[in-house]
Amino acid sequence: MKNIIQTKLTVLVCLVFTICSCSDFLEEDLSAQLTPEGDALANENGLTAALVGVYSPLTKTWQSGFETAATQGILMGGDDLTTHKASNKSDFREFDQFNVAQQNGRLPFIWRGAYKSIQGSNNIIANYQNATGNESVINQIAGEAYFLRAYNYFWIVRLWGKAPILLNSQVYDPENLTMSSSPTEEIYAQIISDLEQSISLMQKLKPATGRASQGTAKAILAEVYLQMAGWPLKDTSKYAMAASIAKDLIDNQDEYGFGLMDNFIDLWPSETINNDGNKEEVFALNFSAVIASNSNSAYGNAARPGELGGWDDYFSEIAFFNNFPDQLRKEITFQTELPDGTPWEQFNTGRPYYEKLQGDALTWRNSLSLPLERMAEVYFNYAEAQVMATGDSTDPDALEAVNKIVRRAYGLPLNTPDASVDYTSLTQAQIVQEKAWEFAGEYCRWFDLTRLEMVESVTANKNPDDLQPLGEIKYYMPLPARETLVNPGLNNY
Amino acid sequence: MKKKQKSRVFLPWHLNYELKMRISLLLFITLSFAMQANSSYGQKTKISIDKTQATLKEIINDIELSTDFKFLFITKTVNLNKKVSIRVKKASIQNVIETLFDTSKISYEIDGRKILLKSKEINNDLLVNSTQTVEIKAEPQIIVNGKITDANSNPLLGVNIIEKGTNNGATADFDGNFSINVEDGNAVLVISSIGYISIEVPINGRTTLNIILEEDTSGLEEVVIVGYGVQSKKDLTGAISIVKTEDYKDQPVTRVDQILQGRTPGVNVTNSSGAPGGTVSIRIRGANSINGSNEPLYVIDGFVGADFRDVNPADIESMQVLKDASSTAIYGSRGSNGVVLITTKSGRIGKPRISFTVRGSISNSISEWDLLDAATFAQVVNERAASFGQPAKFTQSDIDQFRINGGTDWQDELFITGYGQEYQLNYSGGSDKVSYFVSGNYLNQTGIVVNSDFTRFGLRTNIKADLTDKLTADIKMNFNKRETNNVNGEGNTSGALAGPLTWAPTTPARDENGQFTILDPTSSIKANPLESAYNDNISEVNILTANGSLNYEFFEGLTLNVGYGLSYSNTQNKDFSLQLLIDTPSASRSSTESLFLQNTNNLTYKKTFNDVHNLTVTGVFENQTRKIDGFGTNASNLLYPIFKYDNLTLVEASSSYAIKRKETLLSYIGRLNYGYMDKYLLTASVRSDGSSKFRGNNRYSTFPSVALGWRITKENFMQNSFFDELKLRASWGQTGSQAIGPFGTVTTLATDENSGSASFDGNTLLPGIVLGNPGNSDLKWETTDQINFGIDMQFFNNRMGMSLDYYEKSTKDLLLNTPLPLYVGGGIITENVGQVDNSGFEIGINAAIVNNDNFKWDATFNGSFLKNNIANLGDLDEIFLDGSVGGGITNMPENILTPGHSISSYWGLNYLGTWKTSQAAEAAQFGNVPGDSRYQDINGDSAINGDDYMIIGQGMPKATYGLNNIISYKNFTINIFFNAMTGYDKWNFGYATGIMPNVDAREVIHVDILDRWEAGTNENSNIPQFSPTSLEEIQSSRFIESGDFVRLKNLSVAYDIPKEKLGGLGIQVLVSGTNLITWTNYKGLDPESFSNNGIGDSSGGDAGSYPNSKTWTVGINLNF
């Protein structure tokens, strides 16, 4: 009987223990996962998806990038933008009053988006040469990766001055957690190198309205040189380089698919036509508000008055509006009264609003394109660089570049000289001021003021009723708190 | 029936001690079985005995040893030492009995395997051809007849009845009837039976007695289910709390968490959402893990990792909470957070029993916010505008109109009366081979907030069968369907319940067409709270669980149990939101199925050597697979919003996704229980777990434990002590936590549309990929070391008991999500760094305060005291956690992890009240004026900013208490149950939203604003004035409040209509009130509920969480 029991026992135990002793029982099932070790970027399709992932961090609503009023916020040191004096706008006020805390909630948007985008660029740059597929498509993708890496560093260097340069951040390396910031010069050197690389790889025409092309890279390169000519590097030799590249782009703008729109109003969305993808968009982020996290929220409610259901995030300073010359462009740029006729002086905030940025409906969830670089800016950059490089304030090409835009501002045909509005000579200051009117509330006033060290003088001319600086005026932003928490040695001063 | 270890007891009727190990050489017994369903064991069992001059004791014992028959009789009536000769071959048990005993003197009854011997004449011994002399007693005078039943009126057989002070006794028959002759009418009967509390009944001249015996639940013989086995309660060495059915049977519990709340020391149950079927947080001995779940492991009928929501409380037979490492280490890598063992009911042999319960309930919110009426609000808005130099928003005639017509009371719009109904039907029974328990239940509850409800259907079938004498099988099947809508209450500032604190009372709830108002022109930027409330968040969970096991006994003591479990669940989520603000009605659907398989093989050997060494050895091999497959679609801009989630084709845009995951676990388990003389107890266990989530050498981990117990009352020197029981326990062990999901060790690319997608044409959303968090191939388990010291005491004749436990837990190699800087791509990397310590003290007291025939008062009290502390975070000094509790209203991380503090620490400015007039100069340094908010300037730079943030509170209760009273008087039972939580802070985001303007609300709505600082008249107020220079910071100690509360959790009265009046039908009527009174200083709606989208183990943030309700329940229970 004992034997029988033992046999039974043995059989049962063996049975039980063999049920699941397959050797791969504990292997992790990765069949539905995409891993970098796999073939994620091995072909054209993978690179295309990866490229989408390079643009994506620049458009992640409420997370990272340029698509919220945080972009207007971080540029609020300029005289064209201000915010509500009370309400819930303390983050914005910190920018307007040069008193930005590391913990400011709007501070990390661009930093976060730019570096995540850089990580994606690095991944493409590391992999595209071994990928299979149509070579010109792959080169275009690689060129955009180089371009975006440069463009992201350009924003970082202008806002923070010094910052870490990562060219292989697609691979996690614990050493990076203790690295330090690179000096401004090195960042610019990297930007120029990447832009040159991207110009050599990309096609002349954009593959889609929301993507970059050779022309885009050239426009940005000209702007980079212009920026380098001013504070803090003050390398005035760069004016000539800026002028030469901008000139080339202007002269061949049709080849690149660029040009100036005939009417200023056609640059902005209206209820009937949104004008997205127009030829003046040199670089514009595109959105599909199908998902909330891919919405252009810099436009829309953020720019509307609270009386109409808007959020009062940003609007014009009083002096800036008052100094703005009376012209068609001013009417298009600003909302100066409510539908019931209430004039802006009686708005709750007592300021005119940027009508051109209000979008086409009362919503924060826009699919409208967000132009970060317009052809008009290339014209201005050219004019300024040319005047500064030659020292000739009557350089005819420079004058014509600015006058086209001035004529348009008055609703005149832009290619027909008109003595009533045309400049006959132009100083750098005049060009930059004209640029301020054209790009009011857009993305260049603060950078013009800093590179020309004009912030103090412009701020001194503020209307006394506008928000005033709290303490010393600072040209650079502090690093977001998270960065120094993890890497306490990191700084940008 | 298999042979069981027979317990050593000292009751006189029990024969069967100490001999059962011996095998008689003179006797052999052959058994043959006929396996027919309707034949009784007694009829089919044939016995062969060949024995001369053996004592009756030996023969009976050998029959018991070799067959399943069990003899029941009073030792005094049977002379066990009588020598007998017997020789039968393949005889029936009747033959054997009639041969052994003189049937003229004794009678016998056979019920299945039990043989009841009764003396026909109580004073005679049983004699068979014997010359044995017998002591003759005087003939007693009075015959007393009676019947003995249990509390449920079921007859108790074999109960021992002895006339006190004599040897005179009798035994109850199968119907519980007995008859005894006693000396006179003053005699006292001592009635005793195993498992029941012995009582003494004075006859007082009566000749008929109906006696009810109460089950002895505190008895030392109580069997407790432990992991992978059972143990006698007296032999326990670990810290295990037993939740008794009696403690809550008169309360209308509908969920398992309601049973656990306040009833067990060391267990803290918090309803984060008070909605029916809402989320609940359960912590056993604090929280160990920062990244991982801190919810305990649930083991239901042996299924490891089950969901407690699948169990209908009425089906629960027993529930144990395993707390220390010696009890939880057997669950190895999943035991860190404690284990809750639930066993569902089985049928019992006997007549079918049917029970039907119906209950109805009505609920209301326990409190409401104190908010401004429309007219006052409008005035306040104007006053604020004036303070900022802005024009008035409301004209005087507006205000007058509001004064006359009122405005919108958003709370009235949102809060409604909730109703509930519940039906329970179960029946059970069994023959000697098969028993069954079947139950069905239906529960439907509507919440106290519009459009929130919970429905549950359940069906359970538990069957147990003896296939052969050695082989038993059981199967438990449970189907559960749960449907919930909006029960998690969103809990953040965008949720409906935050709405009344942001939406102006001057704004109508609906427009003239009855449609929800889209925009609040005055205050809120969020959606109309009614719109939010009427959005659907439906979850339909269908679960079918089946587990069956075969139990085979090779020989006495050695059993193999092979169990298979399968749990299949399908979850359907249906969401719809109107999104009027952006005019984008959206919906989503998802279907997720999960399959959970378990195979457990348990080999147990149990034996007592030399009567003093009790040994149980258990070996288990177990494997589990859990697969999840799902997909879903999100759609926006529905062309026909009326279809909600039911038509996702007629939409402007949609996107789909699929998920697939698999986890496997392979485990080897061993345990040894050893007891010497019932005095010295040892438990040692080890479990080795291998998991698919880890790699290489980290794949397997081993979790050992050891525990010692000393029953001091078993020592000779304690024989006459004050204590009925005194036991010391000590244990140490290790447990683990997986804390991460699959794929933690590999870097993957994120492919979901929220991570990587973008548009190149302003229209189509293109799929994109971005790098996800870097994987860390070196990850391993979190390991928790725990030591526990405990004392169990019983005194006052077991009327009072007390258990004390002290523990220290230390969880190291925390699987911590270390944030990465944004410049390397942000995100996190999971690493094994850091250590969290928990230590605490627990006390449990139970007392039978009054114990009379008609009046009884039983009380249990428990208290738990916890200290939670981060010991280290590896190289990091601090980690900040961003939650979404504050929605957009907070800019800084809301929680901080830093050594020396609780893992639930709040981060913010220290609010010092308002600047007083005398402090004007100092205030000016900060750009403030008197009446402005004043904060502590930690770094002394005369500016208030991020450098001045500090820890301003913590959300983990340091103490929890429960006090349960069961008072019965005749047929009434009253249950009074209090629970309390103290020593924690709530972060009252809701109040903050109402009392200060912020990103969500531009105006102030809470009435406290009327008491704000005012120069000259109200300068003591710490509510700042309206001032452009005042920094109003939500992340400050101004909004941190103590959450301490004491709550009358339950008050119920049950009345049992006497059975005699209803011809044997048992009816109980119940009236019960839940959450009737809450004593607290907390300004929010409910100090218990919190926003469940908090982070880490932060349980104190309250940004519009769903409050608990005050509920009245009426119920009727019928027993047939």
Describe the structure.
- The complex is a heterodimer of chains A (493) and B (1120).
- Chain A has 18 helices and six strands.
- Chain A is mainly alpha-helical and 493 residues long.
- Chain A is globular and about 115 Å long.
- Chain B is 8% helix and 45% strand.
- Chain B is built from 13 helices and 55 strands.
- Chain B has a 22-stranded antiparallel β-barrel. In chain B, strands 15-20-21-18-19 form a five-stranded mixed beta sheet. In chain B, strands 8-7-10-11 form a four-stranded antiparallel beta sheet, with no helix packed on it.
- In chain B, a hairpin with a 2-residue loop joins strand 4 and strand 5.
- Classes of the chains: A mainly alpha (493), B mainly beta (1120).
Largest sheet of chain A: 2 strands, antiparallel
- Strand portion of chain B: 35-45%
Mean pLDDT of chain B: 85
| Low confidence ranges of chain B | 1-39, 122-139
Number of strands of chain A: 6
Largest sheet of chain B: 22 strands, antiparallel, barrel
The proportion of residues in beta strands of chain A is under 5%
Oligomer: heterodimer
Measured as a percent range, the helix fraction of chain B is under 10%
Report the span from N to C terminus of chain A.
88 Å
Terminal CA distance of chain B? 27 Å
Poorly predicted residue ranges of chain A? none
Topology record:
The complex is a heterodimer of chains A (493) and B (1120).
Chain A: H1 2-19, H2 44-55, E1 59-60, E2 64-65, H3 70-74, H4 90-96, H5 108-127, H6 135-160, H7 184-201, H8 214-229, H9 238-251, H10 253-256, E3 281-285, H11 318-323, H12 328-333, E4 334-335, E5 353-354, E6 370-374, H13 375-390, H14 396-409, H15 428-438, H16 445-451, H17 455-460, H18 481-486
Antiparallel strand pairs in A: 1-2, 3-6, 4-5
Helix pairs in contact in A: 2-5, 2-6, 5-6, 6-7, 6-8, 7-8, 8-9, 8-13, 9-13, 13-14, 13-15
Chain B: H1 41-44, E1 47-55, H2 56-66, E2 70-72, E3 83-91, H3 93-100, E4 106-111, E5 114-119, E6 142-150, E7 160-163, E8 169-171, E9 177-182, E10 188-192, E11 199-202, E12 208-213, E13 223-226, E14 229-232, E15 240-243, H4 245-248, H5 256-260, E16 267-271, E17 280-284, E18 297-300, E19 303-304, E20 316-322, H6 325-328, E21 339-344, E22 350-365, H7 374-387, H8 396-405, H9 410-414, E23 418-430, E24 434-446, E25 453-466, E26 471-485, H10 529-534, E27 536-555, E28 558-577, E29 586-609, E30 613-638, E31 651-676, E32 680-691, E33 700-711, E34 723-737, E35 749-750, H11 753-756, E36 770-771, E37 782-795, E38 800-812, E39 815-819, E40 828-832, E41 835-851, E42 855-872, E43 879-881, E44 895-897, E45 905-908, E46 911-914, H12 920-925, E47 933-935, E48 950-954, E49 959-969, E50 972-982, E51 985-987, H13 989-995, E52 1040-1042, E53 1045-1057, E54 1066-1080, E55 1109-1119
Parallel strand pairs in B: 2-5, 6-12, 18-21
Antiparallel strand pairs in B: 1-3, 4-5, 6-9, 7-8, 7-10, 10-11, 13-14, 15-20, 16-17, 18-19, 20-21, 22-23, 22-55, 23-24, 24-25, 25-26, 26-27, 27-28, 28-29, 29-30, 30-31, 31-32, 32-33, 33-34, 34-37, 35-36, 37-38, 38-41, 39-40, 41-42, 42-49, 43-44, 44-45, 45-48, 46-47, 49-50, 50-53, 51-52, 53-54, 54-55
Helix pairs in contact in B: 7-8
